Amino acid sequence: MLNRYLKEKGIESLLFASGAVAVVVLFLLCIFLFRDGVLLFENYPVTSFLTDTKWFPTADPEHFGLLPLFLGSLIVTVGAILFSVPLGLAAAIYISELANPKVANFLKPITEILAGIPSVVYGFFGLVILVPIVQKTLGLPTGQTALTGSIMLGIMALPTIISISEDAISAVPRSIKEGSLALGSTRWQTIYKVTVPAALSGISAAVMLGIGRAIGETMTVMMVTGNSAVIPGFPSGLFEPVRTMTATIALEMGEVPQGSDHFHALFAIGSVLFITTFIINIIANYIKRRYRFDL
Fold this sequence. Notes:
Function: Part of the binding-protein-dependent transport system for phosphate; probably responsible for the translocation of the substrate across the membrane.
Number of helices: 12
Domain ABC transmembrane type-1: 70-284
Largest sheet: 2 strands, antiparallel
Strand order of the largest sheet: 1-2
Order of helices and strands: HHEEHHHHHHHHHH
Strand content: under 5%
Radius of gyration: 23 Å
CATH superfamily of the largest domain: MetI-like
Structural class: mainly alpha
Distance between the termini: 41 Å
Oligomer: single chain
Keywords: Cell membrane, Membrane, Phosphate transport, Transmembrane, Transmembrane helix, Transport
Subcellular location: Cell membrane
Number of domains: 2
Helix content: over 70%
CATH class of the largest domain: Mainly Alpha
Transmembrane segments: 12-34, 69-93, 113-134, 146-169, 190-215, 263-287
């Protein structure tokens, strides 16, 4: 009895230590980002950083405008989600509800394998295959556009959305589906009026994880979006080169003088990315709690 008690206490202590380490690492990461990011504003106004439409860190005077980078990330991420969510949800419904078990058992591992492909491979594929297709099809000066980045990020987010949505749909109790069918609903009515709403908590989590994957991606967007730090137009901005926040950090951090305003500006961009991801996670948790409560 005593050994069992000690074993349970040991497991409990180990789990607590694991959680505490995660919190401490997150706290240290916040300090690391915000400490160097805030130093930018000793010499550069916060309002200029947030509203300036130019990113010219080597000009005289320097311009550290976040706006074109933020809008570039926003248009690429929104495009990726508009592309991947309907397709991913449809694929998840097919695998979970409609496909033959043998087909489903083949498709599910394939989608999970796609999630493990390195982002540089996706970027290389987009640069060699998709960029020329977009350029020729739309008659654009270059195929390295926000649209190309959105398609590639949508493809990268698909495995996450499909896998988690399929798990959520499969977890809906069979009795609920059978009850709907017994009341006279067709198979399609049961899927979109009963099964999908019942799995909405998991589906929303899948969408938020897909958004997180898209907004935090670096290598792929750096290779296929053209890296032009200008304000994208609307709606023509989808067909123009853009630069994202993540690509800016990756392109410039290796050559920037340490301790300079440019160096601190890149940390400030990283802080904005951190805050954006944090807000997305809060929204995801709110959606999950809301729909779980409604059900």
